Amino acid sequence: MSASAIFVLDLKGKVLICRNYKGDVDMAEIDHFMSLLMQHEEEGLICPVMAHGNVHFMWIKHSNLYLVATTNKNSNASLVYSFLYKLVEVFTEYFKELEEESIQDNFVVVYELLDELMDFGFPQTTDSKILQEYITQEGAKLEVAKTKVPTTVTNAVSWRSEGIKYKKNEVFIDVIESINVLVRLPCGLIDHCVLFIQVNANGSVMSSDIVGSIKLKTMLSGMPELRLGLNDRVLFALTGRDKGKTVVMEDVKFHQCVRLSRFESDRTISFIPPDGESELMSYRINTHVKPLIWIESVIEKFSHSRVEIMVKAKGQFKKQSVANNVEVRVPVPSDADSPKFKTSTGHAKYVPEKNLVVWTIKSFPGGKEFLMRAHFGLPSVENDEAEGKPPITVKFEIPYFTVSGIQVRYMKIIEKSGYQALPWVRYITQSGDYQLRTNV
Amino acid sequence: MTDSKYFTTTKKGEIFELKAELNSDKKEKKKEAVKKVIASMTVGKDVSALFPDVVNCMQTDNLELKKLVYLYLMNYAKSQPDMAIMAVNTFVKDCEDPNPLIRALAVRTMGCIRVDKITEYLCEPLRKCLKDEDPYVRKTAAVCVAKLHDINAQLVEDQGFLDTLKDLISDSNPMVVANAVAALSEIAESHPNSNLLDLNPQTINKLLTALNECTEWGQIFILDCLANYTPRDDRESQSICERVTPRLSHANSAVVLSAVKVLMKFMEMLPKDLDYYGTLLKKLAPPLVTLLSAEPELQYVALRNINLIVQRRPEILKHEMKVFFVKYNDPIYVKLEKLDIMIRLASQANIAQVLAELKEYATEVDVDFVRKAVRAIGRCAIKVEQSAERCVSTLLDLIQTKVNYVVQEAIVVIKDIFRKYPNKYESVIATLCENLDSLDEPEARAAMIWIVGEYAERIDNADELLESFLEGFHDESTQVQLQLLTAIVKLFLKKPTETQELVQQVLSLATQDSDNPDLRDRGYIYWRLLSTDPVAAKEVVLAEKPLISEETDLIEPTLLEELICHIGTLASVYHKPPSAFVEGSRGVQHKRLPGSAGSGESVESPDVASAPGVSEAPPAVIPSQGDLLGDLLNLDLTPPTTTGPPPPSSGMQMGAMDLLGGGLDSLLGGDLGGSPAMGGGFGAAPAAMPASFTAPVSGGLDDLFDLGGGVGMPMGAYSPPKTVWLPAMKAKGLEISGTFARRSGVVQMEMTLTNKAMSVMTDFAIQFNRNSFGLAPAGPLQVLTPLSPNQSIEVTLPLNTVGPVMKMEPLNNLQVAVKNNIDVFYFSCQYPISMLFAEDGKMERQVFLATWKDIPNENESQFQIKDCHLNSDAASNKLQGSNIFTIAKRTVEGQDMLYQSMKLSNGIWLLAELRVQAGNPNYTVSLKCRAPEVSQCVFQSYEAVLKN
After folding, report:
1. How confident is the model at residue A156 (pLDDT cuts 50, 70, 90)?
2. Is residue B409 included in any domain, yes or no?
3. Which of B483, B513, B543 is the endpoint of a domain?
4. Per residue in A210-224, pLDDT tens?
5. Where is this region: Disordered (chain B) (predicted)?
């Protein structure tokens, strides 16, 4: 059904640790993994599934490790990849960082976790908070009496333990929206006699969407019942209310604590939250978003001599708002040298290992426009290696504001002990996959 | 302090030292030692010598130490089976430990020790754990049943664990239910006929309830299990769909895909006019789109599946083109898949956007991606007529870039555009011709040659162009050679006066100097065609070509249906049925979609024809190069939409052939009359031929079907020798041995009954269990006289094939019950499937050809028959005796290929190709059948018949 065995390999393909779950695939098959991968890489056809005879490898890479699952059956591939990513998540929560050293330093716990996370190829309990209740790194200190199965493991509520206590009951709600845009900028390669440049700003937005995420930090005692109210248009239509702005969510994904069938029937988001931090839900909104930071660029390349770059950034959001930590990353040819910059604000830096100019603006008020000019030398002998056309990318963060206009209308918290709890809400909009294709 | 210190000791006396430490009295020291052992094990050192010492540490109340010892056991028990028994006691004890963690740990580890000897000791503890009060232990025990079944299936059945497992489906705890479902599915998958998961509405209801409460993984187990269920009617189907749709909002992509699988399958049963059907379609799109924001590997799985979904139900994603636009930082495997889906979704409404994107991609740097993008532009032109002009001009722009591989790809696709829109874009030919020299890939060269040949009359220097290719004829790939041959013949037919020499040159190159049978055959055919009846030649070679289809690489509909049932799995990623890559799954039933809405009737119809769900005629597919009996109509680059029979070959009988027929004269004009060169050229052909044909010279097509009179009289069907089916020991003294035979069209069971008991036996009767081909006794068992002790009697029981059908494993298994005055006895035997080959199993040649092409290649299987010392005629003779009919024989370089057909009693046709190489005792059989599960049995019959 899923994996026969799981391997953790280093970058050379050496097995650091492995676990044989089903015994139907020879463990020595893993020796073919690395050569297969190299072969695929050479052909330029790298692929997450590879086969050697009747053995199939499904793999992911994380820092300096390969996580590989083997099988000789028609396994559920999506389950295997989800599980491999879950492994990364659990190991990361246990060891802070998942890398070669942390595996070696903690091999006993890794074995224990591998034993608990999957049985005969079936993933079992993978919630790291729950696992930490009975698999700890200080195994030596454990008394037998203390290690009981947390009832949570098999409870219907498998994500929250009983008997949690806080002096002050609070829940923090972060609404974070990431803007993904793909823009095609108008031809930016300009005749080099143009001095004052006024490029037509009608670059076209190819696609755009908003990916929102509602994160919780729960500090609540007992087993509280929570209900979250949003200005969801479907809900409002359902209940016949019609006041203020509503939002249409294209697709909503929930943490397993949310009662999906309830949401399906009356759009109520009701749940018993996991303790501490968690992502309650994510949603996607497929609207035409005006790019919050607009870029115009002119890149003039004089072969064998120099490249001149002019980038104009414009904040297309409310004047009262401010975008923080703005970074505009402009690609430059790999053989460029001797950079010179001039910026109207912020600070530009050349990052040769990534072939980028990074222009950083700490604080970028809405409605403002800034300019950056860069000058690079080019060698007289041209690099004839074909280079791709990487896009300009932008990173930013705008607090106290969501593009979609989504709002938390209420958060009801009910616990049988009847305590009062306070919800705190924060809104942030940030850049997601924010790419502007240039034509150079 | 970290664990890495355990890895550092690598001294010589290490094992000895560890041994001492393991036997230490101090707990801490013991544990440290075990950790060192495990560390050594992890780095691949063999520490199996320490087995007894480590196992001694097993009895401890320290959980961590226990876990380590268990881990060690799992690794080394197999290599030390005798010593593994030492561990049994502790397992039994641990299974009764007050701490559920330890009970579960014990039961979990037990199942991982794959040592046959100790399995039976584990039954009792397992039984207890299955009924444990703690759900954590029960859920672990449920999985253990699957583990044990994998080691010793019989034991698990005998102990009744399967029933206990089934009971756990009704457990109060959702985790237990999920694991029980997973275990049962796993067992059912390896034993397809076990009927373990007899899903009925009650169990389905339990599963749906548990679905709401169990972990994400449990939800996947349950959804995958649900996907195997076939609802009774559209109402049940709808109600399940309604309860599954909330899963589409789950954060785990795997849950979403498994839910999509259930919905895609059950949707088949909903009437299309139902409101709910439309609602469901709308609900599917957003979650599929969201999958594209998952991690790249999950995106890849999702895209491969979306590719299937788009082919099955294009309406779901038709408005979502933009989300498949490629991002700069997408990994290449994601980019290529997105591109594929973009082409499938391209329509008049979005073509402008798509083209703009594709043009952008075509200037990227990644070669594979660029090639595919260029090809995609061509596909768009063919698919969306309104865009053709824009596509062609885009392609011309791209050709101007002079980037070698871009030019070549562009030429390949432009050729298809010419086919699709004749007489519209030929003005670009001049531009194409400019790039002739830069073409170095066979496909591009062949495409260019095709264009030159096809439009020879418009290209002034066509003869020069083609001649330039001819110089290196033998260095070209077959594809180019064939194309060149055809193109020059076309040229000759269009401009006969100037190109005689050229055509003779290419014909002699193809027929006399080439070792390639396809090329030679085609050369001869053209040669004869030209020399006998040039008018016919013109009709054949310059025939109007059928239109090419709009879609590319569509998956064959039955396969597509099967893959839809496997959404999310490796099969859906590879786009191959599981039987193609999973060993031992050949006999497994292919999954298919349930029948369409409103039919209400049983959907178990084993009908091989396409399911009712696909009412539209299957669209023609542009297949890959190299179809079996390559097509002579120079359409091999873009084959016809229909597989018609080969053209009539009336004019090709050698005897009647007029080598310098008047027809040719009329074509070439009067001046040719006595041209010695011409006459010599054409006249030489037959002289050269006998050498390369084994059979008497006959038409080029005929040699494929030549039977050469090799087949003599049939020798009677093969019947295996009698074997003992029921030993006397098991049947209170009755011994039955027997065999099967087919005599004058009737299947017979021939048995010898022997009484080895002390008393007389009477009142014999026989019954068969339901079996794969409905074999049943055609009359009562005729044992007229009582059978006295030590007496034997021969009985022949005629059989028919109209009995009840049930698929058996293996397919040819037959379970028989024989009754006498003493008791009822059961045995099972296997009949050679050749008993079921009907006498009317000889297929028409042309039907054979068409059928062979029509059956998808996935259904083909190949077998080797070793050490068979017959020549091909004798083999064919022998096989015919068992109703395996040879339809055609063809000899290529000393290798005889026999094309054979047979028909099973239930109407299933089987096509075979038997390759016999003179002097090589190993035969190769390729079988093609719409029901590929019979192949294995048929192959066994081949082997049996040939070796008998």
Report:
1. low
2. yes
3. B543
4. 999 999 999 999 999
5. 585-622
The structure tokens listed for B161 are: 């664990």
The pLDDT of residue B184: 93
* Helix or strand (DSSP H, E) at A176: strand A170-184
* A395 touches B: beta carbon within 8 Å: no
* pLDDT, tens digit (0-9, with 9 covering 90-100), for A303-346: 788 889 999 999 999 898 999 999 999 999 888 889 999 999 99
With 80 as the cut, is the pLDDT of residue A18 above it?
Answer: yes
Nearest residue of A to residue B136, measured between CA atoms: A154
Mean pLDDT to the nearest integer, A269-280: 93
- Most confident listed range (A80-84, A163-167, B212-216): A80-84
Best to test chain A binding among B110, B134, B217 (most A CBs inside 10 Å):
B217
Q: Which long-range contacts (CB under 8 A, 24 or more apart) does A113-119 make?
A: A114/A6, A114/A17, A114/A19, A115/A19, A115/B67, A115/B71, A115/B108, A117/A83, A117/A86, A117/A87, A117/A90, A118/A3, A118/A6, A118/A19, A118/A21, A118/A83, A119/A21, A119/B108, A119/B140, A119/B143, A119/B179
CATH of the domain at B114: 1.25.10.10
In the 8-state DSSP scheme, what is residue B722? Answer: P
Regions in chain B scoring below 70 on pLDDT: 1-2, 4-5, 7-13, 193-194, 550-552, 584-589, 595-717
**Overall domain count for chain B:** 5
Q: What is the pLDDT of residue A323?
A: 94
- The answer to whether the Cβ–Cβ distance between B578 and A74 falls below 8 Å is yes
Token duo for residue B580: 């193609």
Contact list, B183 vs chain A (CB under 8 Å): 120
Distance CA B833, CA B937 (A): 6
> Domain check: are B188 and B206 in the same one?
yes
Q: Are A317 and A401 in contact (CB under 8 A)?
A: yes
- For residue A152, the model assigns a pLDDT of 63
**Distance, CA of B88 to CA of B105 (rounded, Å):** 14
Which chain B residues in 97-156 lie under 8 Å from chain A, judged by CB atoms? 99-101, 104, 108, 111-112, 114, 134-136, 139-140, 143, 146-147, 150
| Residues B929 and B782 occupy one common structural domain | no
Cβ-defined contact of A74 to B566 (cutoff 8 Å): yes
* Complex confidence, ipTM: 0.86
Structure pTM? 0.72
Tell me, yes or no, whether B812 and B857 share the same domain: no
Range of the domain at B940: 836-947
Q: Which residues of B touch A100 (CB under 8 A)?
A: none
Q: With an 8 Å Cβ cutoff, are A107 and B39 in contact? A: yes
The answer for A 133-152 residues in CB contact with B (under 8 A) is 134, 139-140, 142, 144, 147-149
Cβ–Cβ contact B691 with A under 8 A: no
C-beta atoms of A149 and B101 within 8 A: yes
The answer to whether residue B857 sits within a structural domain is yes
Q: Domain check: are B453 and B435 in the same one?
A: no
How distant is the alpha carbon of residue B276 from its chain centre? 35
> Is residue B934 assigned to a domain?
yes
Nearest to A154 among B175, B252, B253 (CB): B175
Last residue of one domain, picked from the residues B543, B562, B577: B543
